[in-house]
Design a protein that fits this description.
With about 375 residues, the chain is of the alpha/beta class. The chain has one domain: 3-Layer(bba) Sandwich (FAD/NAD(P)-binding domain), CATH 3.50.50.60. Helices cover about 40% and strands about 25% of the residues. The chain contains 12 helices and 19 strands. The chain is globular and about 60 Å long. The mean pLDDT is about 95. Bound molecules: flavin-adenine dinucleotide (FAD). The site of flavin-adenine dinucleotide has 34 residues, from helix 1, strand 2, strand 3, strand 13 and helix 9.
Amino acid sequence: METKRTVLIAGGGIGGLTLGVALRRAGFSVRIFERAASLRPVGAGITMQTNAILAFRTIGLDTAVAAAGHAMQRGSILDWRGRSLGTMLVSEMAAELGAPMIIIHRARLQEVLQEALGPEPLSLGVKVVGFREEPGSVFARLSDGTEVEGELLVGADGLRSTLRAQLLNDGEPRYAGYTSWRGVCEEAGVADPFSTSESWGPGLRFGIVPLGQGRTYWFATANTRVGGVDAPDAHAELLPRFGHWHAPVRVLIEKTPAASIVRTDIHDRPPVQSWGRGRVVLLGDAAHPMTPNMGQGGGQAVEDAAVLARCLAAEPDLPAALARYQALRLPRANGFVSQSRRFGEMGQWENRLACWARDRLFQLVPQSSIRSNLRRVLTFTPG
Ligand SMILES: Cc1cc2nc3c(=O)[nH]c(=O)nc-3n(C[C@H](O)[C@H](O)[C@H](O)COP(=O)(O)OP(=O)(O)OC[C@H]3O[C@@H](n4cnc5c(N)ncnc54)[C@H](O)[C@@H]3O)c2cc1C
């Protein structure tokens, strides 16, 4: 009888779970170790853009993800008073590329992925603390003191990846200079259910994203020192900054319980040219953490998972499969790291004159060039 090839995965986030499903469906044996005792994603939405849905399609997950979310129709950039700087009919682009742009609650996405994975491969409350290799095998060292053997160990353990630290030893991620808040307003009728927008003010941004069933996911950013905390609560931080912005910004904040608003300092890492060594390789935020300005971090983790699973299934020689995975994924994912950082820097400008010039320039960008950039972003090539 042929024995199944065993892949160990550190981290049960979007990247780790998607890879787990993809590999199991390709006939691999999979074990996922997640340090959290239960999978409870932050109470926020996430945009799975068309490229992520196309990557899910190669795993047979696109229909389930799309059914659990809400298709985006139209996206606009506004100024803080609500004047349009540019609009894009997302639904047209989605139709052209053959897959929708989906906004989904993170908890629902997690459920869909866990359901597709099944309960057996996932060990909760187990941290991967390191690894060692022997000829023909890799051993993941676990927080309970045991070791587990596999053919390959994948670090899908996020921004502060333990496996990346052992592989690359490149220190802490870099702070982008701004923090973010995310919330879900459960009250129906507050925001337009068909329009997604991001509004720009000096050193501040506010995004409004319909989640379906009347709910609205929103996010905000502000320039501030790293490690700040909301005092006395998130409303007290947000209302003085955004309370005078265009409707319905104030109402969205007020109608979201302060305790449910999540604050996250924004980090990334400078791109690197290798994500692995021997029988260990990185994926998702562990490999290429990026600022969220293009809404692509999770999408790139899904693309990684789809491509890595295909490479492993098609190529029995492990070094060749991992080399192909990195050759296919490094340029695209690293490109998003750099582009997202630049977008964020410009989006967080504080100087009013510079902001005025940025807004006017944005209005002058031809639709054709916005569309061709978006087409490149949203196209997924499995390799
Ligand atoms: C404000 C904000 C908005 C965003 N919006 C979007 C968006 O709209 N669209 C989008 O595509 N992306 C978005 N992102 C980015 C997206 O959230 C991440 O890129 C994505 O979650 C990365 O998935 P991952 O599985 O690689 O890592 P993570 O989601 O970080 O998962 C890593 C998992 O590994 C576990 N772990 C860590 N260390 C260990 C260890 N040693 N052993 C075992 N388990 C471990 C963690 O507990 C975690 O569950 C946003 C990010 C932010 C901050």
